[in-house]
Structure formats: structure tokens, C-alpha cells
Specification:
CATH superfamily of the largest domain: NAD(P)-binding Rossmann-like Domain
CATH topology of the largest domain: Rossmann fold
Number of strands: 10
Number of helices: 11
Number of domains: 2
Strand order of the largest sheet: 3-2-1-4-5-6-7-8
Radius of gyration: 20 Å
CATH class of the largest domain: Alpha Beta
Bound molecules: acetoacetyl-coenzyme A
Protein name: 3-hydroxyacyl-CoA dehydrogenase
Distance between the termini: 50 Å
Family: Belongs to the 3-hydroxyacyl-CoA dehydrogenase family.
CATH architecture of the largest domain: 3-Layer(aba) Sandwich
Length: 295
């Protein structure tokens, strides 16, 4: 069944090579997925060789884990490793037909990246952004070919989260959108078309939820109690565990952009900022007896 709002799948174009801008954790996770499931070369770039090497090494390490678990055959592991390479130069994208970015969540940074990529790739090459909160419409503004930009938002951990939000900007053309849906299907994700609005659908709900748990904590409820009160609601992770997985600074950054868009509906927590300033990776410290507390 065609997902709501998706164009005719017949319009989809083949994807034969993928470029990934940014070799961080999110990028590494989906580089692996593209190589494993699309079976096409994937080249990762970043601002220096150390970052690129780290990104490629992460992918190769994940392949080793899959092999050790017996999830992939030795042949598939070798093929996947060979498909994922790195380069410090975006020239490596010259023959790519799908380039996706996962760089810092700042509009000017993403626009700069796409301007550089557009100078290298063919006019048909699709540009995708993994932004979780920024306007895809604004990102397309200065492109020579704004019709080729689409939002392609994965969730963490990419390997196991089935959802993918696909974002259409006003100028995104049908063939680009159809290719995005076909690619999502090949990646075995459930793709939904969402409106280009701050934080799309999932993050605006998730961050509101985390924000309210933080508000209960800020207002004096014990943090552990506030967090664990949601456990019997059937959530796969408590809100603060999820927060640590997403990363405190990333969550705060997204919350700030959502606060700009939604005002008082999305509160920025002073406690969260204090934890970030203290260099904390999560909320909890686990004591020897297994009890957890906010230090
Ligand atoms: N990378 C790869 N695989 C992972 C993984 C990771 N980081 N974390 C877990 N897995 C795999 C495990 O290896 C395991 O696979 P196997 O069965 O092959 O061993 C499988 O997932 C299940 O893991 P576990 O049994 O250890 O744990 P679980 O049943 O508690 O599931 C979870 C883990 C899937 C992460 C689950 O807790 C969950 O769904 N959590 C919520 C995640 C969520 O809400 N993500 C959205 C984050 S917001 C975001 O991403 C938005 C943004 O833009 C900032």
C-alpha cells in the first residue's frame, strides 16, 4: 500500500552510489544500513581525515559485531566493509545520485554543506537531510536545484528503529520524493510523509514528553521518581535514558529551536543546562548497590 502522500513508486530513480556528509555516530549508523541493504558504494566525508577514519572504523566495527552474532554471512560482511569508504573531499560525490547529510544541527552549516555538494554532483543527484528539527524549506532556499532536496530523518538507534520521517519542501519534486520512499523501503523502514514544521512529528512529541518530565523534576519531584513513573506506561525506555542516548547537548539544542517555534509549549530546562555545563553524559550515576541518583 502506498504511504499517504507518497507519489507513484514508478517515478523513483535508481540509487547507485550514496554520499554521506558527516562521519559522526548517526551518519555511521545509516552508512552501514545503505551499504548492507542497498548494496551500493557509500562514501563518507568529514572535515578532517581523523573524523573520516573514525566514521569508517565505526561502520567496520558494527559489521564485525553483526558477523559475530551470526546476523550476516562472512561474504556479506566483506562486501559491506568494501562498500563503505571515506574521503576528506566531497569530490568523491561526483558520481553519487543520493547524498545525505548528518552534520551539526544548524541551518547555516547545512546550507553551506549543500552549496558545496551541489557544486560537485550532477543536477539529478538527490540531496537529503537528516535534520531532526530544522526547516527543510529554508535549507532549499539557496540551492540551484531546490526541487532535489528532501528530508530523510532516521531515529536512533538507526539499525533498530523502524520509522523514517520523509519531509517534502514546497519545491521537492515527485521523482525525488518517490526515490526517497523507494530507498526507505529498500532500507526496510516504515516511511511516513510529514509536513515541514519544526521537529516534524516524532520529536515534537518526544521532546514535549521529556520536557514535562524535566519540568516535574525542576519543580521538585525526585528525578528518579519522575522518570520511572512512565515505565509502566509501556515506553521502551524511560525519558531520561532516551535523553542520554540522544545526547544531552543535542536534546537541549533541539529543545531551544522548538522553543523558538512553539514558545511556552516547549520549555528549556535550567536543570538540563546545568548538567550539560557540568559535562554530564546523562542524568544518573549508579551506586554500588545499583541505586541511581542525580549527583
Ligand atoms: N545500535 C545497533 N543496534 C542496537 C542498538 C544500537 N545503538 N541498541 C540496541 N540495538 C539492538 C540490539 O543489539 C538488539 O539486537 P539483537 O536482538 O540482534 O541483539 C536489539 O536492538 C534490542 O536491543 P536490547 O534487547 O538490548 O534492548 P531493548 O529491547 O531494550 O531495545 C531499543 C533497545 C530498541 C533501543 C529500545 O529501548 C527502544 O526502542 N528505545 C527507544 C528508542 C527511541 O525512542 N529512539 C528515538 C530517539 S529520538 C531520535 O532519534 C530523534 C532525533 O532526531 C534526535
Amino acid at each position: 500500500k502506498r504511504p499517504a502522500g507518497a507519489p507513484d513508486a514508478k517515478l523513483a530513480r535508481p540509487v547507485t552510489k550514496v554520499g554521506v556528509v558527516g562521519a559522526g555516530l548517526m551518519a555511521g549508523q545509516f552508512a552501514l544500513l545503505f551499504a548492507r541493504l542497498l548494496l551500493v558504494p557509500v562514501v563518507m566525508t568529514d572535515i578532517d581525515a581523523a573524523r573520516v577514519d573514525k566514521g569508517v572504523a565505526y561502520v567496520h566495527g558494527e559489521v564485525d559485531k553483526l558477523l559475530a552474532k551470526g546476523r550476516i554471512s562472512p561474504d556479506a560482511a566483506n562486501r559491506t566493509r568494501a562498500l563503505v569508504t571515506g574521503s576528506v573531499s566531497k569530490e568523491a560525490f561526483a558520481d553519487a545520485d543520493f547524498v545525505i547529510e548528518a552534520v551539526f544541527e544548524e541551518l547555516t552549516v547545512k546550507k553551506q554543506v549543500f552549496a558545496e555538494v551541489e557544486a560537485i554532483v550532477s543536477p539529478e543527484c538527490i540531496l537529503a537531510t537528516n535534520t531532526s528539527s530544522l526547516s527543510v524549506t529554508a535549507m532549499a532556499e539557496d540551492l540551484k536545484h531546490p526541487e532535489r532536496l528532501v528530508g530523510f530523518h532516521f531515529f536512533n538507534p538507526v539499525a533498530v528503529m523502524p520509522l523514517l520521517e520523509i519531509v517534502r519542501a514546497p519545491k521537492t519534486d515527485d521523482a525525488v520524493l518517490a526515490t526517497a520512499f523507494a530507498t526507505a523501503k529498500s532500507l526496510r523502514k516504515t516511511a511516513v510523509l510529514v509536513k515541514d514544521a519544526a521537529a516534524f512529528v516524532v520529536n515534537r512529541v518526544l521532546l514535549r514528553l521529556m520536557g514535562e518530565v524535566f519540568a516535574a523534576f525542576d519543580e521538585g519531584t525526585d528525578a528518579h521518581t519522575a522518570d520511572n513513573a512512565l515505565r509502566p506506561m509501556g515506553l521502551p525506555m524511560t525519558p531520561f535514558t532516551l535523553l542520554a542516548m540522544v545526547g544531552l547537548p543535542v536534546a537541549q539544542h533541539v529543545t531551544e529551536s522548538m522553543h523558538e517555534a512553539f514558545g511556552e509549549r516547549i520549555a528549556v530546562s535550567a536543570n538540563l543546562q546545568a548538567l550539560i555545563d557540568a559535562g554530564r553524559k546523562g542524568l544518573w550515576e549508579t551506586a554500588e548497590d545499583g541505586s541511581q541518583s542525580v549527583p
